[in-house]
Design a protein that fits this description.
Helix content: 25-40%
Largest sheet: 8 strands, mixed
Number of strands: 8
Radius of gyration: 16 Å
Strand content: 25-35%
Order of helices and strands: EHHHEEEHEHEEE
CATH class: Alpha Beta
Number of domains: 1
Length: 189
């Protein structure tokens, strides 16, 4: 019997609110340390609901895709994945987050690979970027496992946020992706 968990990346919905709150609370130390939006946590349910609404609106408009990463069998929220327009024309940033209780099981790698394949279906996308904060060895390992090359460590800003230091990785083509097609990871937009 196949024991590979099915993964689904789909737009966030309002009924994800309590599951997302639980996942963030379970992972608060990691969220605050590694994720740009972690500075907002812990947040109120109203604030989190507004963030989910923003994610859904951006996804529907095709301006950014922050997606819920859920178990494809039981719908349990595992984390999130994202395709973000911050690098500029011809490129997208891929991002991911896996709740603490599910970390180390390959979900970030699988989700990122599925998102990269999806992004490169658009003929206008010529490269992918992956940004991590210095010291986030687990995230840098995902980047390298997928075939990204470290481009630079830079102090930079994105989406109008205050400048921060990031390690920036590049993947210059789909053929550089070192992850086989995963029939158990699906994106639903």
């Amino acid at each position: 019997m196949n024991n590979i968990r099915r993964l689904l990346l789909r737009p966030f919905r309002s009924d994800d609110l309590f599951a997302l709150r639980q996942a963030i609370d379970e992972s608060l130390d990691e969220v605050q340390r590694w994720l740009p939006w972690g500075a907002e946590e812990p947040s109120s349910l109203d604030h989190l609901a507004r963030r989910i609404d923003k994610y859904a609106t951006e996804c529907a408009a095709g301006t950014a895709w922050r997606l819920a990463l859920v178990d494809g069998t039981d719908g349990r929220l595992i984390g999130s994945g994202a395709l973000l327009p911050y690098p500029g024309p011809g490129a997208l940033e891929v991002g991911y987050w896996v709740r603490k209780g599910e970390a180390g099981r390959g979900f970030a790698t699988r989700a990122a690979a599925a998102l990269i394949r999806h992004a490169f279906r658009d003929p206008g996308i010529q490269r992918m970027e992956l940004w991590t904060r210095p010291g986030n060895d687990a995230s840098a390992a995902v980047a390298r496992r997928l075939g990204f090359d470290h481009r630079e460590r830079a102090e930079t800003s994105r989406a109008g946020a205050a400048p921060e230091t990031f390690d920036i990785f590049d993947l210059l083509s789909l053929s550089a992706l070192r992850a086989p097609e995963d029939p158990y990871a699906r994106i639903e937009l």
